[in-house]
Structure formats: structure tokens, C-alpha cells
């Protein structure tokens, strides 16, 4: 998730993510980050000006990683439905493989700690933008009902977030069958033609 960073930055970002998820943001101090990461406070300040700077870099790093993960294997030559299915299955896989990153984005996307500029950069780098374009194509081609693409993407993401939270809380066994049914339900919610998931 943090492979593009140097060893010190990676240690700080990984440690901060674990601490925030385990202890909450307010309980995560610079001294605790230094202690748990094994990086001196002075060295941390060489790369990050403040705890808020670390949080914002963490947010950008996770959003960028998520964007690459969700849009992997999406071939523009494939049908809208095939790309739709692949993208949402990738979202499920992302939530299962990287639960702490998933939880961080869910908890802090609207936090005042995240600067507005960081949020705007994240929108450009994340996966929502590419999916909005896919939905827009589906609307223009008469495959989807004429709703605003961004709203549809967010509606579908909300339903998937709920299932992933149930899974992470051990309330739902997230089998491939459940994933397929959820993706199909999202497709059927906006598609002009209902049908099997393929």
C-alpha cells in the first residue's frame, strides 16, 4: 500500500494507520508514532511537518492505492457490464484484503483533519472518477436509467460498504455468491435490462 514511499515514510504511514484504527485519531500522538515505528521524532519531522500532515499523506496514499486496485484489470474494450462487475468485485476484494485502509477511508473521509485540497486530489486519483465515466457511458448508451452517474456510484458504494462492515464485524460470511448477488443487485437497480450476472 505504501510501496512508493521510502523506508522511513513507509514505517511512519503504516504505524499511523495501525494506531488510528486501534486507538482512534485523538489518541495517536507524534511521540507514539515515533515509538511504535522505530523512527525518531526528528526524522519524522524531516518528512512530515505535523500529525495532520501525516494523516493527509496517509489519506492520499490509501486513496491512490485503492484507485489502482479497483481499476486493475478493467479493459476498455470489454462491455460496460463486464467492467462494472469487475470493478465492484475489486471493491469487495479491497475491503477484504486491506480492512484497515478501508476503515480509515470510511472513518476520516469527512474529517476536518483532511484538508480540502487533499480531498480534491484524492477524487482525481481514486476509483470513483473512472467508475463515474463508466456509468456515464452506460447512461449515454441507454443501458442505465438517466440518473446522475456520481450519485449512482455513491449509492452502490454505500450498499457494498454496509456488507463489508458486516463481514469485518463477523456478522456476514462474505462468500463469492454473496458478492455476486450484491453486484447483480446494484446492476439491476440502475439497469434498463435486468438479467444474470456475467
TrEMBL record:
Residues 29-48 bind DNA. Residues 6-66 form the HTH tetR-type domain. Keywords: DNA-binding. GO terms for molecular function: DNA binding. It holds the Pfam family TetR_HI_0893_C. This is TetR family transcriptional regulator. It comes from Paenibacillus oryzisoli. The lineage of its organism: Bacteria, Bacillati, Bacillota, Bacilli, Bacillales.
Amino acid at each position: 500500500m505504501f510501496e512508493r514511499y521510502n523506508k522511513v515514510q513507509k514505517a511512519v504511514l503504516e504505524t499511523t494507520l495501525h494506531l488510528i484504527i486501534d486507538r482512534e485519531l485523538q489518541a495517536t500522538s507524534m511521540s507514539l508514532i515515533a515509538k511504535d515505528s522505530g523512527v525518531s521524532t526528528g526524522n519524522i519531522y524531516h518528512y512530515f511537518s505535523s500529525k495532520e500532515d501525516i494523516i493527509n499523506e496517509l489519506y492520499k496514499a490509501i486513496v491512490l492505492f485503492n484507485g489502482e486496485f479497483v481499476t486493475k484489470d478493467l479493459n476498455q474494450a470489454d462491455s460496460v457490464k463486464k467492467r462494472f462487475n469487475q470493478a465492484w468485485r475489486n471493491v469487495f476484494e479491497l475491503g477484504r484484503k486491506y480492512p484497515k485502509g478501508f476503515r480509515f477511508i470510511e472513518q476520516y473521509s469527512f474529517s476536518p483533519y483532511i484538508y480540502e485540497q487533499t480531498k480534491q486530489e484524492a477524487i482525481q486519483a481514486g476509483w470513483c472518477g473512472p467508475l463515474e465515466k463508466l456509468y456515464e457511458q452506460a447512461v449515454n448508451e441507454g443501458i442505465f436509467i438517466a440518473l446522475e452517474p456520481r450519485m449512482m456510484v455513491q449509492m452502490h458504494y454505500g450498499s457494498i460498504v454496509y456488507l463489508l462492515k458486516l463481514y469485518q464485524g463477523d456478522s456476514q460470511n462474505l462468500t463469492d455468491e454473496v458478492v455476486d448477488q450484491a453486484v447483480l443487485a446494484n446492476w439491476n437497480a440502475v439497469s434498463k435490462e435486468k438479467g444474470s450476472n456475467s
